[in-house]
Amino acid sequence: MNFDTAILLDNIDPLIKGVETTIWLFLAIMGLCTPLALLVALARLSRNRLLRTAGATYVNVIRSLPLLVILFFTFYGLPALGVFVPPFVAAMIGLTLVTTAYLSEDFRGALMAVPRGQYEAAEALGLSPWRFTRRILVPQSLPVLCAPYFTRAIVTMKATSIASIVAVNELTAESMAKITETYRSVEFLAFAAVAYLALSSLLALLQAWVQRRVSLP
Q1: Considering its fold, how many domains does the chain have in total?
Q2: Confidence at 197, pLDDT banded by 50, 70, 90
Q3: Which one-letter DSSP state was computed for residue 135?
């Protein structure tokens, strides 16, 4: 089968729209899960036993469930409970729940890498937990967090493809629709592969730039 560039160009508009939807879904997920993951990580490191237990339970339960099951619950289960959300929102909720659980462990590892002496110094100076977290804990954990954070971001970007299962017209869904419509698979799969590679490469470049900015002297 010859690669037909013309058929790809004739159908480029919905494919570009799929790329845009993928990007928006990815940005929404990362925008939500980043602060949520930090809160879960802080809960797991808290001296409060209830917070530690709640954080650990959330992480262990979510990581034990297949992503597809969680997406099916948000897409089919929520309406059964009387909560009706668009497919995009259902996918966003499901992927945010999963990404938060995994990313919180990356946050927790980075926070635990901060020397214990910093905690003792904060107590001696009478810093509030909020000021200590904002001024000392988070900034010093960034160099350790950078690589796993962007690795998780790349994994999440690729995981948005599973949103096609719940009727989100992202890149994979649009590509499969065109394959069904035209009976041409190579062209559209190649476009999807190149698009995902380009997005992953951009995130890798962003990681390198951020890594240089936050690296400790």
Answers
A1: 1
A2: very high
A3: I
Ramachandran category for residue 82: left, alpha or beta (phi over 0 → left; psi -120 to 50 → alpha)? left
| pLDDT mean over 5-23 | 94
Q: Give me the CATH number covering residue 11.
A: 1.10.3720.10
Residue carrying structure tokens 């409060």: 48
For residue 138, give its domain range: 5-215
Kindly state the average pLDDT of the residues 153-177. 95
* Helix ranges, 67-137 (H): 67-72, 78-80, 87-112, 116-125, 129-132
Provide the whole-model pTM: 0.89
pLDDT given for residue 201 in this prediction: 97
| 3 state SS of 77 | helix
3-29 burial: b if 16+ Cβ within 10 Å, else e: eeeeebeebeeebeebbebbbebbebb
- Quote the CA–CA distance of 55 and 46 in Å, as a whole number: 10
Contact (Cβ atoms closer than 8 angstroms) between residue 92 and residue 73: no
Radius of gyration of the chain from its Cα atoms, rounded to whole angstroms: 21
For every residue of 3-61, DSSP letters joined together read: --HHHHHHTHHHHHHHHHHHHHHHHHHHHHHHHHHHHHHHHHT-S-HHHHHHHHHHHHH
Cα separation values, 180 from 14, 190, 196, Å: 14, 15, 20
